[in-house]
Amino acid sequence: MTKNVRVRFAPSPTGPLHIGGVRTALFNYLFAKKNNGTFVLRIEDTDQNRYVEGAEQYIIDALNWCGIPFNEGPNKNEKFGPYRQSERKHLYKKYADELIASGNAYYAFDSAEDLDFHRKDHEQKGKTFIYNWHNRLKLSNSLSLSAEEAKAKLDAGEDYVIRFKSPQDETLYLTDIIRGEIKIDTNILDDKVLFKSDGMPTYHLANIVDDHLMEISHVIRGEEWLPSLALHYQLYQAFGWDAPEFAHLPLILKPTGKGKLSKRDGDKMGFPVFPLQWTDPETNEISRGYKEDGYFPEAMVNFLAFLGWNPGTEQEIFSLEELIEAFDLEKVNKSGARFDPDKIKWFNHHYMQEQNNDELAEAFKSLHSELIEIDLNYISLVIGLIKERATFVSDFWGLSHYFFTAPTTYDEKASKKAFKDDTAALMTELKNIIVHIDEFTVTALQTDIKGWITKKEIGFGKVMMPLRLALVGALQGPDVFDIMFIIGKAETIKRIENVIKAL
């Protein structure tokens, strides 16, 4: 790739960043890094009515948590700043005026009531109202009015918008990296509003101007922006600018595979759709986040990479560096990608095994007051034994509580299975074997206890099942000898004595 690659992620700060937005940011990041390019964050806050306090910082925090930070953006390497559109509004009027001067745009003075009347009139006739070439001369704008009439309205301070003058009887041939060639008849396009009389541009104008001024080389965005491609392409032509290359990512679908994934789906099916927890500043409603639910950022990134992209191999586990190396926009699918809550758990389980036990011990300790006085090295040893069965740190207590507190009850079904008429006598004999083991190691325990069982010519289950029951309170957990070694000789003997008394 010869051109200097610059991509941008341009969310609106209208609330928390949806998982689909994170996927878009990730694909932009991967593409930039693969091509030694720049990943830009731009905050598109032209719609001040929908602005939500705290949303911009949430977006930045989410990207940082995922490990995909931006190179340029608000308060960071502001080479083409500012990076908030609300701080760039002085720029856009000049470009809107340029389009009017070149005949590619015009002033429209139609009131909301007038436009509503036309819409309803068309609906009654079974038609759809589109403001474009076929009716623009019948409406109130600088094309249907004389120059004097239009000037008089502007001088009088009447409300207006600036609309793009979409051409008639032309065919546009557009190229999308993912979707190939797209053919569009301009007769079906409406004359989109580019600029409002309140001094703010619409998304369409601001987006094109900013992408041009920030020298964006590739626009990688969601499929929902595909209908805007024709207008954006025409705007580049109208300005005489080179257009960036476009790539429209497939939708992320509900777990059922039908329809776009929404927050409601997460609420209904019990999984988050936001990277971080979000508290609505108006309602104080809390929305769950993947971070707070115990997911690792590596798991989320690995999972999201496969929503629409396929490396063409059997490999599923990728580090961020491996994703950068393998990523290719031409391997992104056109069809929607089904969101599978179980698959991200599968990824999380994998990354759990790669986590540092000491760090996991810190996280585990912070969740349980019972662990405050317990040595961190001990907790770390326990985690090393049980984490292969865990998906989240929150699973640890259920898998390991018997390492910290001796069982006081015993699983009824397991007790009937493990304890027979001669079991108490065997457990007493076993206790005496353990008492006389000087070097209390896993190897010594295995050698002496297995040797004793073999010598007595009894089945291993007759001893190992009641022993596990004594230590755990149920027939579950890691290797019995590992449990004994970690809890120590005195505690092991005490638990054997307890089970004999109880059963």
UniProtKB/TrEMBL annotation:
Kindly provide the name given to this protein in its UniProt entry.
Answer: Glutamate--tRNA ligase
Listed HAMAP family: Glu_tRNA_synth_type1
Binding site residues for ATP = 263
Q: Which family does it belong to?
A: Belongs to the class-I aminoacyl-tRNA synthetase family. Glutamate--tRNA ligase type 1 subfamily.
**Intervals of motif 'HIGH' region:** 11-21
- Gene Ontology molecular function, alphabetical: ATP binding; glutamate-tRNA ligase activity; tRNA binding; zinc ion binding
> SUPFAM superfamilies under this entry?
An anticodon-binding domain of class I aminoacyl-tRNA synthetases (SSF48163), Nucleotidylyl transferase (SSF52374)
Function statement: Catalyzes the attachment of glutamate to tRNA(Glu) in a two-step reaction: glutamate is first activated by ATP to form Glu-AMP and then transferred to the acceptor end of tRNA(Glu).
List localization entries. Cytoplasm
Any idea which UniProt keywords this protein has?
Answer: Aminoacyl-tRNA synthetase, ATP-binding, Cytoplasm, Ligase, Nucleotide-binding, Protein biosynthesis
Question: What CDD domains does the record point to?
Answer: GluRS_core
List, for all copies, the residue spans of the domain called Glutamyl/glutaminyl-tRNA synthetase class Ib catalytic.
4-346
Q: Per the record, what are the reactions this protein catalyses?
A: tRNA(Glu) + L-glutamate + ATP = L-glutamyl-tRNA(Glu) + AMP + diphosphate
Entry keyword annotation includes Chloroplast: no
Aminoacyl-tRNA synthetase class I anticodon-binding domain location: 367-500
Listed InterPro entries: aa-tRNA-synth_I_cd-bd, aa-tRNA-synth_I_codon-bd_sub2, aa-tRNA-synth_I_CS, aa_tRNA-synth_I_cd-bd_sf, Glu-tRNA-ligase_bac/mito, Glu/Gln-tRNA-synth, Glu/Gln-tRNA-synth_Ib_cat-dom, Glu_tRNA_lig_a-bdl
Q: Which Pfam families match?
A: Anticodon_2 (PF19269), tRNA-synt_1c (PF00749)
Primary subcellular site in the record, as a coarse category: cytoplasm
Superkingdom assignment: Bacteria
One GO process term, biological-process aspect: glutamyl-tRNA aminoacylation
Can you supply one Gene Ontology CC term for this chain's record?
A: cytosol
Assembly mode: Monomer.
Q: What is its EC number?
A: 6.1.1.17
Q: Which gene encodes it?
A: gltX
Chain ranges for the short sequence motif 'KMSKS' region as given in the UniProt record: 260-264
Q: Which Gene3D superfamilies does this UniProt record tie to the protein?
A: 1.10.10.350, Glutamyl-trna Synthetase, Domain 2, Glutamyl-tRNA Synthetase, Domain 3, HUPs
